[in-house]
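User: Please run a holo structure prediction.
Assistant: Happy to. Please share the sequence and the ligand.
User: Here you go; the ligand is zinc ion.
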Amino acid sequence: MGTESTLKAARDAAPGLVVLGWDAATWDLLSPWVADGKLPNLARMMESGSYGPIRSTALPVSPAAWSTIITGQNPARHGVFDWFARKAGSYDVEYVHTGQIKARPVWEYFNAAGKRIGVFNLPMLYPAVPLDGFMLSGLAAPEASSSGFAYPRGLAVELTENVGPFWHAETEVYRYGRERAYLQNVLDLLEYQKRVVDYLIQKHPCEVYLLVFMQADHMQHKFWRYLDSTYPGYDPEYDAQFSEAILQVFQALDDHLGDLRARFGEDTNFVLLSDHGGGPVHGIMYINRWLHEIGMLHLRSNPSTRLKFWVAKTDLIGKAYRAVSRLGLGKIANLVSKPARDKVLNSFMSFDDIDWARTKAYARGAFGQIYVNLKGREPGGIVSPGEEYDQVVDQLMAALEKLPHPETGEPLITDIHKKADVFDGPYIEGAADIIFSIQDYLYQSSVKMGLDSEGILGKSEYEDSGGHRPDGIVVMSGPGIGKGVSITGAGIADILPTVLALAGVPVPDDLDGRPLMEAFTDAQRGSVRFVSGESGALPDTATPELDSDELAEIEDRLRSLGYLG
Ligand SMILES: [Zn+2]
């Protein structure tokens, strides 16, 4: 028996592991559907295993959350906070990519332990990196034809040849009134991706799979309004037609879960999770407009900015657009379509129009994220680190706390934190200085000034009626998992140590997360090994445990190859 087959035997002895991600899945939707018998495969997995809610990163943004899932570290220790990262010494940003993840990722742990891992469709992974197994990039990747899309490098071409033309993102754009085309496109992509995963499992088998599906997130962003009779402008008759669209997509995901569990059988541990939850969204807050109103952000006074400010403030374009619509000049109204109008307004007030020499704070990102214009960090920073920085942060936090919802008078801002309260690690400078949610995530935020809006709240962008919530789902089943344990207090940083422990790989004791051992069987719990020290270092014990005969065989083999003296 040669080394290769010895190693293979060692790999086969350990139960396999499938980690399945349903981006944005929430118990708020799934629990009632499970109770009604609409998701039978999820129900069976829950019955045979353990489950509960799982808390996302302090900013429940997919790239930050998935980076925490694959590293077991909070964003200040892996460096990914959002879809973008600030460029050092600039107000510009660069979009998320694999190189921004600065903590040891899951595939390195498994590969070091001699286990191949197949990584599919994580949204922030591009380019795909060399590993023992396979990796396919996700949402943030450019075209699949780009050389870094997959590892092995020819994999996207191989999939095109064997499964059909490769695609990894919806090609239809959601529009209210054109729901069917988008829904069909989402389902088509899911069908295609199921066949891709099927092919990969057959032709590129691994001991561990990490497979992510984005469909639930995309559907919830666009189709939540059909479930939400309080959504502004809800039309009971029309909207009722699509009240089951999100369920339909979850049923397709549920079928896939059933297929995978049937295919891998009883010996495989399954972890199903989401990176964050989901919920309704009723609009956006123009945080930069609010900062402008309270004198924390100033606009340049050059003629072009002044003209843009005046046009936006008087809503000149909006008035012209409405006048044209009123006159019934349909064709002209179409020429000045809503998207075109939005585009003009978007280009209006940009970061180029901010007078940095008089600006103490600005906002960026889809959640409550305010950055101080800090000397030495921002190129035009005016706030000194230390006492002045603390003063600006305290002043902003006090103002946010008092800010009322313009219509209801209720507090608009909830969950206000300094970054050091929610993040901890060497890359904390990449985080916003103040983090908050806007009416418990019922509003998202926009980087735009929003000067064309009536107030600091406006209509959702991209027709979003759903968004993220902090609590996602975790369900585990398989030979290492106990039955009927209700998982409580879990966070997504716990997933990496949990899956390492389930696969018999030693767990670094300095990760931010911990293995969810309360859900393990006694035998599994007893087998968990920890290694001390830096989670960044390769643990020596991270090799499969072999018996002495196998070790002797390996030694012979290596000697014969000249590796040993
Ligand atoms: Zn997500």
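Residues 3-64+103-277+470-531 form a domain with the Alkaline Phosphatase, subunit A fold (CATH 3.40.720.10).
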